[in-house]
Each structure stands twice: as C-alpha cells, then as structure tokens.
Automatic annotation (TrEMBL):
Domain Glutaminase A N-terminal span(s) in chain numbering: 103-335
Protein name as annotated: Glutaminase A
Signal peptide: 1-19
Keyword hit for Disulfide bond: no
C-alpha cells in the first residue's frame, strides 16, 4: 500500500504546496489522531525530520514507534476524487486549518470551492467514568458542508489496513465483516495466529481490531487489496460489498478494509461517523501478591459481555463521549490559562491524552488496576520514576487513578516478592508482562524510587482525603524512609531518573528528593500512626536540609545556584525535586532557595529551554515544568514560553517527547 505513481505524488505535493493551513494553538511534532492506549496510538508526523508539516492528506499515519499504520480517506465530489487522509495516490484536498484540544484533533479542508470537510479525531478521556475510559476505542467524525450554497454529489470513503494488527508485516492477517444488533457495520481484523502477551515493534500481537461505521442504505463495504478497494471507490463511488477470503501476509497485496458512504446531493451539511478500536479479553500478565503469573482481563470485560457489545455501546455513545470530553477540554483550557497563560495551554492540551494513552485499565470493576507502559524507551511497566512526572495529571483529573497505578507496587513488595529494602523500580521489564523482580535485579534507583513512592503516597492521600491509605501502607513506607535516612544526605554513586546521563555520587537534586521524602514521611506518620515518630523524622529532615544548603550551593558564583553534585561549584542542574516541597505544603526548603534558583535559570537558557545540567545541552520537558511550577512568575513564564516555542518549531516528528536539545530543538 506504500507504492504510488510519480504523477500522483507530484499532484499531491503541488496541492500541499498551495495549501496554507493554520495550526492552533501550535503545530506539534506529531499530530494525535487515535491516541487511547499503548497499542491504539496513531499519529501524523509533522516535523521536518520525516513529516510533511502537519497535513493529513499526503502523509501516512504512523504508530507511535514510527511504522505506518495505513489509514486512508478519499472523497468524490461531483465525480472528482480527492484524498483527505493518507497517501493513496489521488489529488489532495486543501487543508486550511488544524486545531487540537486535550481530546480532539480537528482538521478543516476545502475541496476546491465546492465543499468544506471538518474532520475530527476524538480520543475520549473520561477519568471519572472508568467504564467509558476502559474502552480502547477512538472516533473519527467527518462532516461535509457545501461552500457555495449549491448542491454537490458527495461520496465519502475511509479504510484501515492490516498494518494495525501486528508489527510483523509478514504475519498472516485474518478478517471478517458483520453488523451488530444495533446497526453498526464493522470490519474485524486480527492476526491469524495470535501471540498472547507479546509485541513486535511495540505493537500488540494479539487482540481483535474493529473498524466500524453506521450501517444503512447508503453504505457499501469491501475488504481486499488496497489498489482494488480504493480503485473501486474512485471509479464509481461505491464498493462491492465483498469480503476477500484470501487471508495473507500484511504486506502481500496490502489488505485494506473500506467503507463508502454515499452522502447524496449536499446543499447544506451532513456527516459520517467511524470508530476504531482494539479488544483484548486478557490484557496483562501479573503475579502481584502471589508467585504465579496470571492473566488479567481488560476492565471493559466487567461491563460488556462481548467485544461486539462494547463496540456497539462505544459507537452509539459518540454524543455523550463528545460532550464529556468537551467539558474536560474546557476545564483544562480555563485552568491552564488562569494558571500560566496561553503558552501553558499549548503544552497541557497536547500532553494529557498522551499521558492517558500510556495506560490501560484492567482487572474486575470492584478491584481495578491501571497499568502503564514506559513508552519510547525500554517498555518497563509502571516505572515509578515515569509515574512520578505524570502523577500531577492523574491527581488533577481523578486521584483514584494514581492509587490504581501504585497498587501493584504495594502488592508485590508488601507480599515479600521483592528482596531489597528500597523501593522497586518497576513491576516488569517489559509491558504487558508484569513479572516483578523476585531476584531484585531491576534497574537500581534506590533513593529516587523511595522518595517518589513516599511523595506520591502522601500526594494521593492529601488530594483524596484518604488517611486510611497511609495507615494501610505505613510499614513499607516507613521501611523506605529508613533507606532515605541512611542515604539521602550523602547519596552513594547511583543513577537517578535521568539514567541516560549516567551515575554520579552526591547528586544535589537527588539528595533533595530524599530529604523531602523524609519530611513527607513525618507528615504520614503524624496522620497515620505516631506523632513521636513524626517528630523524629522531621528532625532528620530539618537537620539534613540545613547541611544540604552548605554542601549543594555554589555561593561564590556570580549568580549563586545549586550544583549538579556537591563541591562542583561550576556545575548546575534543574532543581526539579524542589516541586514536591511546594506540592505537599511541607515548607521544608527555605524561600531563599526558591528565589536563588529563579534568578539563576534565566542566565543559562538556550533557544528552546534550560539544559538539564552542565553535562549536556539537552533537557527534559517534564522537569522543566516541575521547575517552572515553583519558580517566580517571570522565570515560570520563561520556561513555558521556551517549551511552547519548541513544540511549534522542533524538527522532530514523533509524539511529544520529554527529552530534546535546547540549542537545535532536535
């Protein structure tokens, strides 16, 4: 499906050259299309390192890892055929605008001067409705409106390819067609031989993909080779209502699964709705408090008897899902602008669906889990120092979600299935297999993860007003606090969350996390168990923070600042662990430290941000925002302005990254 004539390509490029699309609030490095889970994560590359600038027509959508997941759209207007999505070969429509919100990507396109198309990709986020949130589905809504007030004959086409079902393009795909009892027409596509709980290029190798739309007299369908199916629509505006039974390799004559809607003669406006999603009855392998690895069902199976029931509900739920998502969009927009202005909304509205799409709800409805994949690195599951930068999102939308993310860590370690005295790094080396670390050989970040777990436990309890949670887990939290008492003030040579930067002894920022963790534990002790223990812990924390200021601040510098490591006065780094002191209301760190850092950061800014530390020019976007959150207003705005500018100008062409170069933007 990736081959097309030079003439078609030239026509596409000419159309794109003439197109002048606006991008609001920015042109991201990749535009989110269907972004709902680690496996339903389809994007449009935009950055110049491989994208086409953000035009839906003329570029194949891709999975987050970079491989094409074929998704094509054609439209016939008065007998002329145009492409509105993908690169199947015909002349492209003229994209005039793109806008994203926290849940939607909206493209506006003109087909000549005849009709306007409004194409909306909605990946619903319903953090307080776990039934809806559990469905790994996304919507595509296409409305068509006459531009000139005249009647125009319009037929609309969209397909997906078998590339969705496996990262192995030589794998045999199988498919079927049907209509639900509720009148939803669907193509069902899957690997002929599913490989349970396995991945290829990060795509799931098991489960059923559904591509669906409303059944009706104007609908035709067809499954077959890409050139045949798309050619049939191009020539007649219809499909053959046939289902190619020659199951074959994904790359063998590229099987695609098309729908064509005859919208008739349009003089005003009409629309067609599509749904795409993945159903996996069993989603995760997890041992938990037992020593046996067992399958965990997708949470949606607690609410729906069959996958078709789930599909039928989701497709007919569009109006409610759209309304709930719009409410969330509006809340995030209002709160973001009130907190730090439009540039901040540019960042938050691009981030939230991506954070949720790293997760999947599993288990029974009365005892669910939220599992997270560490995407674009090594695929670890529920990595503590990946949950940590995301935890404000879950606290903001529904604190219960943070509790569900942390639950496996407490289950495994409280049941004695982790031998180390410090907190575990992750619950499994690679998603979706939460095998734990009975041997204790997970990536060692002892101080980092002890501090993170204590801080997040208190943050959840404060937000949810759930002191009982702290009482339940007090013993293991206190165990981790003991580790912090031993190691925080003078951290041993170890890695932090920024493991790519290498290990280092006496890291100033890492020590601060541990010291804040001790003070957080004193609050936990006071709330849950023992005021005397709370006093002892807070004494440790206050003694340590006084010494830390002597060890970790370069006071002789022209602009005093904290160092990367003790005694290295010419070094510096983002002091992002200061965030937890303010988040938890501890007031452990003197205001003078906040003020000093706020004055320092503007002196080391690059074109696109502030470097993570003196070892490199790269930075971490998440830690920049943590740093900005506790900085002065002017310094906060500097961080946010630079990051929003990077989003709009970066040459990268993948989903929003947390690691980039502050000089080149790459």
């Amino acid at each position: 499906m990736h081959f097309f004539s030079l003439g078609f390509l030239c026509a596409s490029l000419i159309a794109l050259t003439n197109a002048q699309s606006t991008f609001s609030p920015a042109r991201p490095p990749a535009l989110p299309l269907a972004v709902k889970s680690p496996y339903l994560s389809t994007w449009l590359s935009a950055g110049r390192d491989g994208g086409n600038g953000g035009y839906l027509a003329g570029e194949w959508p891709t999975f987050w890892e970079g491989q094409v997941t074929g998704w094509a759209g054609l439209v016939r207007v008065d007998g002329q055929v145009y492409t509105w999505m993908g690169l199947p070969g015909s002349t492209t429509v003229n994209q005039t605008a793109y806008e994203y919100t926290s849940t939607k990507s909206i493209f506006t396109m003109h087909v000549g001067d005849a009709v306007e198309m409004k194409i909306t990709f909605l990946s619903p986020i319903t953090p307080n409705d776990l039934r809806r949130q559990s469905l790994v589905f996304s919507y595509l809504d296409v409305s068509v409106t006459s531009l000139d007030g005249k009647s125009h004959s319009v037929q609309l086409y969209a397909d997906i390819s078998a590339e969705f079902v496996s990262g192995d393009r030589s794998a045999i795909a199988q498919w079927d067609y049907g209509v639900t009892s509720g009148g939803v027409a669907y193509h069902k596509v899957h690997r002929q031989t599913p490989l349970l709980f396995s991945e290829n290029r990060d795509q799931a190798e098991w489960g059923d993909w559904y591509w669906a739309t409303d059944s009706g007299p104007g609908l035709t369908y067809q499954a077959g080779p890409d050139v045949d199916v798309r050619g049939a629509f191009s020539s007649s505006g219809r499909l053959s209502n046939s289902n190619d039974a020659n199951y074959r390799a994904i790359s063998n004559n590229w099987p695609v699964f098309g729908f064509a809607h005859d919208l008739g003669s349009i003089s005003s406006s009409t629309s067609a709705l599509f749904s795409i999603g993945l159903t996996q009855s069993q989603a995760i392998q997890y041992a938990g408090s037992s020593s046996t690895l067992s399958p965990v069902p997708s949470l949606w199976t607690s609410y729906f008897n069959t996958a078709l029931d789930a599909l039928n509900f989701f497709h007919h739920d569009y109006q409610e899902a759209n309304s709930l998502s719009s409410d969330l969009d509006q809340r995030i927009a209002q709160d973001s602008i009130a907190a730090a202005g439009q540039d901040y909304l540019t960042i938050t509205s691009l981030s939230i669906r991506q954070a949720f799409a790293a997760t999947q709800l599993c288990g029974p409805a009365d005892n669910p889990y939220l599992f997270m994949k560490e995407i674009s690195s090594n695929g670890n599951m529920n990595t503590v120092d990946v949950i940590f930068p995301a935890h404000p999102v879950f606290l903001y939308t529904n604190p219960e979600l943070l509790k569900l993310l942390l639950r496996p860590h407490f289950e495994i370690q409280e049941s004695g299935h982790y031998p180390n005295s410090y907190a575990m790094h992750d619950i499994g080396a690679h998603y979706p297999n939460a095998t734990g670390h009975l041997d204790g050989n997970d990536e060692p970040m002892p101080l980092e993860e002890c501090g993170n777990m204590i801080i997040m436990a208190l943050a959840y309890a404060q937000k949810a007003n759930d002191t009982a949670y702290l009482e339940t887990h007090f013993t293991i939290l206190r165990q981790w606090a003991n580790y912090l008492i031993e190691d925080s003030l003078y951290p041993a040579n170890q890695i932090s969350t920024d493991d790519f930067a290498g290990s280092l002894a006496n890291q100033t920022n890492l020590a601060l996390k541990g010291i804040i963790g001790i003070e957080a534990m004193s609050v936990i002790a006071g709330l849950a168990v023992d005021s005397e223990d709370a006093n002892n812990l807070t004494n440790y924390a206050h003694d340590y923070i006084e010494t830390w200021q002597t060890l970790g601040i370069s006071r002789s510098a022209a602009q005093p600042h904290t160092t990367l490591s003790y005694g290295s006065d010419s070094s510096h780094g983002l002091l992002y662990n200061l965030y937890a002191d303010r988040e938890l209301g501890l007031n452990l760190v003197p205001q003078s430290v906040y003020d000093m850092q706020s004055s320092f950061y503007p002196t080391i800014q690059g074109q696109f941000g502030v470097p993570l530390d003196t070892r490199h020019q790269y930075t971490k976007a998440d830690w920049e925002l943590f740093t900005a959150a506790v900085a002065s207003t002017s310094t906060r705005d500097m961080f946010i302005r630079l990051l929003a500018n990077w989003i709009n100008q970066t040459p990268t062409n993948r989903a929003l990254t947390d690691l980039y170069d502050t000089t080149t933007g790459g």
